[in-house]
Design goal:
Blueprint (H helix, E strand, L loop, with lengths): L1 E7 L7 H9 L6 E5 L8 H9 L5 E4 L9 H14 L2 E4 L4 E2 L3 H34 L12 H12 L4 H7 L4 H9 L2
Parallel strand pairs: 1-2, 1-3, 3-4
Antiparallel strand pairs: 4-5
Length: about 180
């Protein structure tokens, strides 16, 4: 049997492209979907699919990154399929693990994908460190200026209710308490 799996990261995104490709690949009645990030392995559609797939079945995906974003998850899923006697086909990458060469190509792509992810993380961290060294303030902008913080402290110290001060400055009480407890 052919099982299809399609995933997008958010409810705003459409599964249509993937569903069309999976239908064309012969998965029509057995397509499982998720609208969740690929970072987590815990996805209801994927878990249900994996609970049903068995010997001589094939899991078909539009692209490998639909079943997993990280090296470990991709390897674990491929190993789980192999243990069950099932195969994996990626339509976009042209991978079919039912052949020896398909299995090798799949493993190589996983290694390169993991390498690429690590390089991106290294570049991002280097860029952040360089920006910090140049004195760039990272993170979101503060909700309040130092003058506003001084003023709200004075208001609270003068006896004005904290809930009222927070409302006047259009900040949450947590933000108010954080500014009251620092410096």
């Amino acid at each position: 049997m052919r099982y299809g799996y399609a995933r997008v990261s958010t409810d705003d995104q459409s599964l249509n492209l993937q569903l069309d490709a999976l239908n064309a690949a012969g998965c029509a009645d057995r397509i499982f979907t998720d609208k969740l990030s690929g970072k987590s392995r815990k996805r209801p559609g994927l878990e249900e699919l994996l609970s049903q797939i068995g010997r001589h079945d094939t899991l078909i995906v539009w692209r490998l990154d639909r079943i997993g974003r990280n090296f470990r998850d991709l390897v674990d899923i491929a190993d789980e399929l192999r243990e069950r006697g099932a195969n994996l086909v990626s339509l976009t990458e042209g991978i079919d693990t039912s052949s020896s060469i398909g299995e090798v190509i799949y493993r190589l792509m996983i290694v390169f994908a993991d390498f690429e992810r690590k390089v991106i993380v290294e570049r991002t961290n280097a860029g952040l460190a360089a920006a910090k060294a140049r004195g760039v303030r990272l993170g979101r902008r503060p909700k309040l200026t130092s003058l506003q913080i001084r003023d709200l402290r004075a208001l609270v110290e003068s006896g004005k209710p904290k809930a009222e001060v927070a409302r006047d400055y259009r900040i949450g009480r947590t933000t108010l308490y954080r500014h009251l407890s620092t410096g």
